[in-house]
């Protein structure tokens, strides 16, 4: 489902490591500081020229969730008491890593880890949380290494 | 969209892909890629680079905990680039004029040469700075992950901050060549040079300088980027302020010598505005308050004194009514000090000087004729007109008018030039008070001024004008410190006005009193009001007496009519009518009245004691007037001539003596004195009016001379001739005039005596309340109570306290640490 990249358009293309393409609204995608900088025309990197970002370390499954989150965030940007967005639990670690990679300002704040019905479940909190570096790194260290 | 890894029935967390994160990272290989990319970025050639790739590389390194290595590598890379390529480029633009100008002064090159060379250098520096910032921005973006994870965790400054401080160290802090100033020093010098060109009127490239200043503002002393350690502040601003201070100091001194004060003020104002604009357009807004401070210090604060004392300074401005210039000076000084001490001081001095001048004129005017004043009184009085106001009185009126004019002038200046500023107004008022109180006859003169207005001034004036006059009078009164002295004089003058019926309008008199009541308080006007009350009562009394006499039935057409004023002795300053000190010693002698008058007197006494028992009437014959019908023997071929003569009671008594004398008989001065008991001074004066003044010469004096001397003989003037039926014999010392020295001494003594009582009363009142009080406290409380009426003399208070102790109102406390007193009930 790859789409042609168009310059100056409102949409940008995000390409996963397994060659899935997602066409996303620029404003939504720029939630991630990394993507924002990649596409910054003043810096003039290749991505900005092509209007396309390739992510060699993010798979399509994960990237889809990320894009979903972009829109979810945009939709609820100015509202209060937004319900948490649920991710497939089995993807949580990969999403965590992607979120870290794309910049934690992405407001995918990394979540409360808790036990419910005797099975672990990571509930991604979509409310902006200012600085959860500690929360994140502990989860990250626990699970990744 | 993309395929979706479906959720199974049983949830299993997928492990992250190992391949990427787990594999070993070849640091050097990755660094080589990054370094190459960085070079591309620095040459503005980033379009072929994939941000994601670089970002991922940096990410990988950091993930592998090699963030520190990466950080150091980048720093080294930047340091090398700046230290070599960039610096060389910048140093190359430093041309000879710049280097020379730094060392050996500006004389060798022209301003425009220096300007263009400087601009070249500034441009290059600014360009490098811009480039550095842009590329470092991109580098930082690429290294974002490193900044986020490594720098934050290890408390390292971000790579951007690091590279900025590298720029500072490598470019600015390094000497251009060995043993030569650093780039920063040269830079500072160039900017300062350009600013001084700007001040001299050479146009400079303001936006370029502004950009460089931006650069300095963006750099900090340390990597921590503390807000008040901007390089701009530490390296440039201090030097800028210092050279500015020097420049303005020199300029201020030059201008003080060369131009006039008004021009100086305008220049200073322009310079301040200029510097404010310069900060906006060329330097930094941060500096605005500081440079303003410098200019204000150098051009205003340190020069204010000189400026005010210039030939064309404040004195000149006041003299020539340069209100706008004064306003300028005021504006300038209020910039540096809200209290405006110099201007205030100068204004005070001017007022004091002008006031002293007025005082001096008044003094000389009043002392010159004083010697002859007394002798002329009689003669002038006989001239019998309002012109008899002597020179001293004129001087008094002139003094008040001038003081009022002075006050009005400065009030005007205050309003128009000083925006009615509180401090200056207060200071000016204080000086006015000082001037007025410096003049020891102030109280008397002001009272005279009011007196004159009451008698003549308000004639034919509208109500508004009268009001204005009263207001003027009150204004001056307000300044008086010794209000008790004023009260004494006012009472005296008012007394004469009332008794001699000189006042134009009793209504206005009463208005004046009520104004004083508002200004000076109830106690001040109490006695004055009592005087008015006495007058009203006396009028009623006179009517009552006349009715009583009429009812008596013994209507005797020959009976003399009597109008009487019964005065409360305490409220009326009766001594005002006595000639001077001589009389006060002589006990009030019993005047021998002619039988007609005595009869009248006794009849009234009888009537009065019938009305009020237990009151003693003391007759003040020296204040009365009498109307006589005088018949002169027919002259050759004429009928007997009758004249209505109006004269003082004494003159009446004297004239009546001659009724009993055989024709041609004469009396000597001594005989008259013995027969009448009139005090000698009054007698002499009255005889002078009757026998010397040409129009009222009812008596003939032997020998004929101007002065009345012992042994002179008087006889009735049969040949008196006058065209008028009604003749008024001049009443001696009827007008209110300036006191003679002797009179003043009496007044002063009386005032002092009165003050003594006031002070004693105050002390007793305080002590009664406090029981025990230290000396110092008692003094200060007494002063604060009494000062509403006059400024007390501390010595006098001490004496009064002593006297109170002697009379056992107070006693000294023996064991008190400070001298104290106790009240003895």
TrEMBL record, chain A:
Its main location: nucleus. It comes from Acrodontium crateriforme. GO terms for biological process: ubiquitin-dependent protein catabolic process. Residues 11-74 form the SKP1 component POZ domain. SUPFAM superfamilies: POZ domain. It is found in: Nucleus. Essential component of the SCF (SKP1-CUL1-F-box protein) E3 ubiquitin ligase complexes, which mediate the ubiquitination and subsequent proteasomal degradation of target proteins. Controls sulfur metabolite repression, probably by mediating the inactivation or degradation of the metR transcription factor. This is Elongin-C. Belongs to the SKP1 family. The keyword Lipid biosynthesis does not apply.
From TrEMBL, chain B:
Pfam families: Cullin, Cullin_AB, Cullin_Nedd8. Gene3D superfamilies: Cullin Repeats, Cullin, Chain C, Domain 2, Winged helix-like DNA-binding domain superfamily/Winged helix DNA-binding domain. InterPro entries: Cullin, Cullin-like_AB, Cullin_homology, Cullin_homology_sf, Cullin_N, Cullin_neddylation_domain, Cullin_repeat-like_dom_sf, WH-like_DNA-bd_sf. Residues 441-691 form the Cullin family profile domain. Residues 363-372 have a biased composition (Low complexity). The keyword rRNA-binding does not apply. Residues 363-385 are annotated as: Disordered. GO terms for molecular function: ubiquitin protein ligase binding. One of its GO terms (biological process) is ubiquitin-dependent protein catabolic process. The keyword Ubl conjugation applies. Keywords: Isopeptide bond, Ubl conjugation. SUPFAM superfamilies: Cullin homology domain, Cullin repeat-like, Winged helix' DNA-binding domain. Transmembrane segments: none annotated. Belongs to the cullin family. PANTHER family: CULLIN. This is Cullin-domain-containing protein. It comes from Acrodontium crateriforme.
């Amino acid at each position: 489902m790859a789409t042609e990249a168009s310059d100056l358009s409102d949409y940008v293309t995000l390409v996963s490591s397994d060659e899935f393409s997602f066409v996303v609204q620029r404003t939504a995608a720029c939630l991630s500081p990394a993507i924002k900088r990649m596409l910054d025309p003043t810096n003039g990197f290749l991505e900005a020229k092509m209007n396309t970002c390739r992510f060699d370390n993010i798979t399509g499954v994960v990237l889809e969730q990320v894009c979903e989150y972009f829109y979810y965030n945009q939709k609820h940007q100015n509202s209060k008491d937004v319900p948490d967005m649920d991710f497939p639990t089995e993807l949580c670690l990969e999403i965590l890593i992607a979120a870290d990679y794309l910049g934690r300002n992405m407001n995918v704040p990394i979540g409360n880890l808790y036990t419910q019905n005797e099975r672990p479940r990571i509930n991604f909190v979509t409310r902006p949380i200012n600085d959860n570096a500690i929360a994140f790194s502990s989860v990250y260290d626990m699970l990744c290494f | 969209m993309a395929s979706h890894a479906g959720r199974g029935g049983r949830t299993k967390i997928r492990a992250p892909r190992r391949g990427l994160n787990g594999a070993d990272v070849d640091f050097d290989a990755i660094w080589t890629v990054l370094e190459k990319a960085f070079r591309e970025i620095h040459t503005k050639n980033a379009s072929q680079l994939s941000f994601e790739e670089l970002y991922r590389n940096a990410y990988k390194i950091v993930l592998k905990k090699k963030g520190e290595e990466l950080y150091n590598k980048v720093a080294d890379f930047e340091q090398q680039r700046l230290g070599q390529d960039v610096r060389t480029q910048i140093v190359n633009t430093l041309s000879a004029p710049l280097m020379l100008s730094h060392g050996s002064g500006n004389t060798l090159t022209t301003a425009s040469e220096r300007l263009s060379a400087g601009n070249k250098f500034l441009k290059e520096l600014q360009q490098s700075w811009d480039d550095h910032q842009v590329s470092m921005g991109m580098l930082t973006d690429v290294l974002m992950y490193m900044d986020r994870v490594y720098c934050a965790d290890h408390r390292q400054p971000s790579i951007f901050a690091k590279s900025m401080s590298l720029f500072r160290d490598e470019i600015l802090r390094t000497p251009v060549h060995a043993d030569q100033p650093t780039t920063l020093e040269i830079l500072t010098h160039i900017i300062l040079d350009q600013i001084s060109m700007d001040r001299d009127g050479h146009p400079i490239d303001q936006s370029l300088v502004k950009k460089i200043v931006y650069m300095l503002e963006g750099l900090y002393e340390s990597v921590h980027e503390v807000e008040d350690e901007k390089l701009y502040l530490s390296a440039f601003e201090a030097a800028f302020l210092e050279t500015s201070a020097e420049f303005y100091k020199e300029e201020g001194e030059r201008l003080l010598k060369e131009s006039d004060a008004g021009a100086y003020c305008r220049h200073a104002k322009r310079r301040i505005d200029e510097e404010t604009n310069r900060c906006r357009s060329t330097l930094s807004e941060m500096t605005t308050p500081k440079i303003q401070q410098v200019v204000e210090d150098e051009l205003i604060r340190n020069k204010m004194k000189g400026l005010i004392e210039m030939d064309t300074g404040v004195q000149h401005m006041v003299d020539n009514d340069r209100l706008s210039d004064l306003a300028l000076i005021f504006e300038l000084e209020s910039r540096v000090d809200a209290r405006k001490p110099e201007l205030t001081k100068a204004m005070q001095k001017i007022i004091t000087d002008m006031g002293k001048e007025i005082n001096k004129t008044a003094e000389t005017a009043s002392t010159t004729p004083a010697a002859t004043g007394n002798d002329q009184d009689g003669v002038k009085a006989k001239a019998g007109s309002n012109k008899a106001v002597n020179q001293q009185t004129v001087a008094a009126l002139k003094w008040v008018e001038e003081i009022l004019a002075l006050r009005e002038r400065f009030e005007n200046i205050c309003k128009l030039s000083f925006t009615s500023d509180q401090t200056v107004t207060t200071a000016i008022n204080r000086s006015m008070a000082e001037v007025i109180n410096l003049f020891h006859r102030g109280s008397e003169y002001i009272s005279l001024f009011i007196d004159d207005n009451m008698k003549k001034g308000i004639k034919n004036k509208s109500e508004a004008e009268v009001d204005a006059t009263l207001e003027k009078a009150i204004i001056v009164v307000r300044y008086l410190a010794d209000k008790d002295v004023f009260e004494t004089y006012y009472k005296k003058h008012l007394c004469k006005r009332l008794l001699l019926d000189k006042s134009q309008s009793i209504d206005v008199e009463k208005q004046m009193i009520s104004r004083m009541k508002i200004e000076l308080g109830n106690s001040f006007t109490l006695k004055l009001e009592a005087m008015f009350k006495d007058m009203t009562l006396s009028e009623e009394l006179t009517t009552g007496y006349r009715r009583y006499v009429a009812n008596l039935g013994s209507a005797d057409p020959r009976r003399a009519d009597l109008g009487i004023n019964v005065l409360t002795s305490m409220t009326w300053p009766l001594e005002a009518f006595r000639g001077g000190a001589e009389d006060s010693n002589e006990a009030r002698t019993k005047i021998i009245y002619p039988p007609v008058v005595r009869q009248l007197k006794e009849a009234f006494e009888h009537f009065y004691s019938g009305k009020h028992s237990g009151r003693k009437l003391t007759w003040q014959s020296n204040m009365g007037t009498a109307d006589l019908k005088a018949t002169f023997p027919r002259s050759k071929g004429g009928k007997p001539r009758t004249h209505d003569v109006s004269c003082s009671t004494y003159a009446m008594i004297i004239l009546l003596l001659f009724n009993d004398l055989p024709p041609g008989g004469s009396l000597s001065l001594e005989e008259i004195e013995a027969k009448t008991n009139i005090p000698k001074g009054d007698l002499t004066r009255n005889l002078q009016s009757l026998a010397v003044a040409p129009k009222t010469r009812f008596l003939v004096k032997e020998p004929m001379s101007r002065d009345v001397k012992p042994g002179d003989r008087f006889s009735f003037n049969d040949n008196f001739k006058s065209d008028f039926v009604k003749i008024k014999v001049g009443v001696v010392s009827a007008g209110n005039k300036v006191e003679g020295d002797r009179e003043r001494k009496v007044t002063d003594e009386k005032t002092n005596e009165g003050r003594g009582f006031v002070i004693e009363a105050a002390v007793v009142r305080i002590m009664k309340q406090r029981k025990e009080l230290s000396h110092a406290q008692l003094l200060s409380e007494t002063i604060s109570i009494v000062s509403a009426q006059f400024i007390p003399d501390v010595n006098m208070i001490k004496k009064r306290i002593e006297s109170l102790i002697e009379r056992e109102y107070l006693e000294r406390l023996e064991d008190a640490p400070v001298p104290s007193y106790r009240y003895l009930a």
